[in-house]
Amino acid sequence: MPLPRGLRRRCEGILTTLDLPTPFTVEGFRASLERHRGRPIAMEPLPVLGHDAPCGLWIALPSIDVVFYEQHTTPAHQDLIKLHELGHVACEHTGVLELRHLTGLMPDLTPEFVAQALGMGRTSYTTVEEQEAEMIALLLADLAGADRARTESSQRLVDSMLSPIARLRRRRRG
Questions:
Q1: How many folded domains does the chain comprise?
Q2: Crossing angle for the helix pair 127-144 and 7-16, nearest 10 degrees?
Q3: Strands lying side by side in the sheet with 65-70
Q4: What's the domain range around 127?
């Protein structure tokens, strides 16, 4: 699927409304986003949920946002997962995860609460929301200097999403 027209510009616009930390760190961005939203954002390792489980999740509970991230991967990959999920928070997306994943994360929640929180019937983020969150993560990873930790396949994804000028600048730094 081709990238939506204006994706990068839209995501850069979202980031300009936020107070980005200098130097940029994932934790600093989490804290800044927390202040911007006026509510806490907790970062938690994702429990093992099964082979088809996502590697990251954002759950907006009534008084706190919880970002879950894959714990059995490299620190650089964890940072990208966190930035992706925080990208959903920054964009104020409304997609939700499958009920079985949420009950696996929080077994003490009642089925009634979970059904109400999920709005019953929404099971995943739209493709546009995923692309926005990924673009936010890539833009922020560049700020953090995380592009040095990318794999060959993730670099191809970055190159396909970032503008030709950014690619040229990266080659010159090379």
A1: 1
A2: 60
A3: 41-46, 65-70, 56-60
A4: 7-149
Give a yes or no: residue 162 inside a domain: no
pLDDT digits (tens, 9 = 90+) for 122-155: 334 457 888 899 999 999 988 877 444 555 555 5
Q: What is the CATH number of the domain that holds 73?
A: 1.10.10
Structure tokens at 45: 């390792």
Q: Looking up tokens 């616009």, which residue turns up?
A: 13
Global pTM?
Answer: 0.69
Rg of the Cα trace of the chain? 16
Distance CA 160, CA 34 (A): 30
3-state secondary structure of 57: strand
**150/139 Cα distance (integer angstroms):** 13
Length reported for the chain? 174
Q: Say if 26 falls within a structural domain.
A: yes
The answer to whether the CB of 25 falls within 8 A of the CB of 144 is: yes
Is 172 contained in some domain? no
Residue 154 within a domain: no
Give the list of residues 6+ apart from residue 129 with CB closer than 8 angstroms, or none. Answer: 88, 91, 93, 95
